Amino acid sequence: MTMKSWNNAKLLSGPAYEGPASLQNDRQPFPTRGLKALAFVLLASMAGSSCDSFLDVEPVDRIDAPSFFSTDQELLIGMTGVYAAQRSIYGNGTIYNIIEGRSDNAGLDHTDQAERVATDIFAEVPGNLLLDVTWAAMYNCINLANTVIVRGPEAEGNAALIERIVGEAKFVRAFTYYHMVNLWGGTPLRITPTEDFEETVLARASEAEVYDLIVQDLTEAAAVLPDTYDGSADNEVGRATRFAAMTLLGKVELQRGNAGAAASALRLVLGQYSLLSDYGMIHSPGNDNLAESIFEVNFNPANQTGLFRQHFIPQSVADELGIVAGGSTREILFPFVTQDLINAFDDPEDLRIPHTYGTITGREPGGFITKFIDVSAESDGADVNLVLLRYADVLLSLAEALGEGAEAYSLINQIRSRAGLPDIDTNTPGNFMEKLMKERRLEFAFEMHRWFDLLRLTETQTIAVMNAQLEAQQSTFQRISTYNGPTSFSLTPERLLYPIPQLEIDISGGVVTQNPGH
């Protein structure tokens, strides 16, 4: 697809992101690390404001948790701080690069800073700053959630509201640990508030123990969370629901190989949401919490910028679209769309294509992401939420849990029908998992699902998929005169997990151990 034909496709667009200062300028060096500067378990941070919506509340530096969490309204403000911390995880490019950029959907600019490139070619070292920042942000969010969970039962006020707020905190904690266990394996399992540095030292739990906590949190959250919110005070749309907990529980059980348990959880969500008729509406500016959305990271354009900066697209595309925020002036984008993903969209009639990627003839690599562009953006921000769970995921996850059969193909074909594609069945070439994984790849491209999907394959299959992609990227960059990266790279089994940040190991005095091979 040429730039002109893509531009005429009436793109409905999506998030821009704001990263740490060190990531906002492509050539700016990473900041100097200090042992305490990125201490991974931060003291409880709270948010307070007179604004009507929980999205409008800005976090303040610190409030004494024991004295503050004494009423239901104070607990509600505390939960707002948890959501604010969750926005901090997803509101910049680091989490995106280490999840989506790690997959075969996207590549990173190999003329860029070495630490960012390393996550693309499985060459990370334990001191990688992207991993440091993400680890710290996730544990900060977990610590805030822990404060709400522990202090909640002691608070006075509306018992049902307090119970609901604690359920919300358990959902967010479970979601954060779900990402951590898939990125690092077993991690320190912190379930109570950390209030001083002496309490940060905790050995790693096993993967099974982390998953057990996630399942427990989601089960308990689902028992107390409402199905929907009415939009009134203290009942704002966008908070975690029972169906969000059940959807994530289904995905978690699928991730750890419990297909029966996954199917049971996901069936409870069937029929509670619906697919939007237009795929392009899902990530378009202002389309928040629509009929397909189950859980989003909510960004308020008044004081919280959206997810991704405009450097997902070239400057020439931004100029043609009239985007004041501009695009990337770099010859190679980070991340860019891999040719392998472009080839996977093998039906030119697929209605998802213009809302997923575009290409510029003569540019190598020429693919750029169109799913997350806000045409009206005037800065690095965007009026777009990040959809973490949506109904299409319920349908395809349930199909995977059920395995090949009429019901599974019926679920898959709902997704294909919206994309304007014909039905598939047992007679369609390929085995069931190959067909299912292809549908997931095309439907959720650049939504931070692909790497976790690949981890559900056998180790041999995952490595084969990624090494084929790495070989293709390697040959591409060797043809580019500015390429200055390693001459060869490949994925080995021990690299399926990221290294535990060295700073965590150092702070623990060696109590926290490193992943093998790092």
Task: Briefly summarize what is shown.
The protein is mostly helical. The chain has helices at 3-7, 21-24, 65-68, 72-90, 93-99, 114-118, 129-151, 159-184, 207-224, 242-255, 259-267, 315-321, 339-344, 391-402, 406-418, 432-443, 450-455, 459-478, 502-507; strands at residues 46-47, 59-60, 106-107, 293-297, 336-337, 357-359, 367-369, 386-390.
Task: Give an overview of the whole structure.
It is a single chain. The chain is mainly alpha-helical. 42% of the residues lie in helices and 5% in strands. It has 19 helices and eight strands. It has helices at 3-7, 21-24, 65-68, 72-90, 93-99, 114-118, 129-151, 159-184, 207-224, 242-255, 259-267, 315-321, 339-344, 391-402, 406-418, 432-443, 450-455, 459-478, 502-507, and strands at residues 46-47, 59-60, 106-107, 293-297, 336-337, 357-359, 367-369, 386-390.
